[in-house]
Amino acid sequence: MSGNGDRLRGEFEACFGGLAAIGQDPAGGWTRLAWTDEDRAARAWFEAEAGARGLGVEPDRAGNLWAWWPAPGEAEEGGVVAVGSHLDTVRRGGAYDGALGVVSGLVAVGELIARGVEPRRPVAVVAFADEEGGRFGTPTFGSRLLAGALDPAEVLGRTDQDGVTVAEAMAAAGAGPDEAGPDPALLGRLAAFVELHVEQGRGLADMGQPVALATAMWPHGRWRLTLTGEANHAGTTRLADRRDPMLGLAAAVLAARAAASELGAVATVGRVVVDPNSANSVPSQVSAWLDARAEQDQTLDWLVTAFQSAVEEAAGRNGLTAELTAESRSPGVAFDEDLTARLYSCLRATGLEPVALPTAAGHDAGALAGSVPTAMLFVRNPTGTSHSPSESATLDDCLTGAQALATVIEELACR
Ligand SMILES: [Zn+2]
């Protein structure tokens, strides 16, 4: 590799390694839930890495961190070109989800600075807050709050499993929620947002390609199902006398799978809370979360309707009450065609030919796409696995991605 390539490689390895050292879970993988000590350490890491490249970091009103190149006010011709992703992870997640986009943004800006490139428009590397929703059940919290898609009063009152509210957790992390809310002034300054992300499936691996441009994001949502029966003795209660919510849950899980399979969608029940969660008791209540995604909004509606009617039928059969509430719903997103075409041609000029790929994962880019011209780059994930320690990307592919992001920033902000 050339001298420049060696520099990029060294910068990337050091930067990525610094973040990967934070939040390693003794049980495997990485756990950096929003506003925890691990998340706070990752945010401090971001400020230090940005500072080391001469970028000043400012929070916005939604708890996201913005690293500016150059400082705001120094290059105001045209709108801001923003790149970035998120620092938080799911419980025992992978090293690349979110991290790769933030690291690539910092490294790409550092590379342009090292090459003596001058920005004509302000560039920002953004670290969005609480993208995964792993603690408070509000995925893409920071980007949606910024964009005005969340009601601050409602989401700041949501609690984690220990009863701590978002507002309390943000305050404890020094991210003052007093004025937390949308930031239309900042949003209005953005000319473009580009998120680089590790692919969360096998699309690129199957095509033998390192990098893709996203075409669209599937509509998706999260629903909470609460089934209530009656706690009772596991030995002395006759089967006929039981009102066992676990039977309702079993039917619900199978119904979700059947509906998804029939509709060409995906549905997952990945979290269950059982009360009293005792091995020799019929439970009194079971709560479960349905995550569902489909190519079309209509299909997603059909899936949830099918799930709900199967749940109600099973509840009736087992003497239960069932309540299904939507916790979040994100419509499908088509990324900006003009911006994506511009990215394609500037990357093609460097010899890279990104393929086009839709995604069933949610991203901060999807939350901004309604207000700002937005595009996404995906980097190949050989295992196709994500939200798991086995999520992966080769160093060469990561460098190809970081180099592509540098090309994109140069095209959008430095010409
Ligand atoms: Zn992510």
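^ zinc ion complex. The chain has a mean pLDDT of 95. The longest strand covers residues 266-275.
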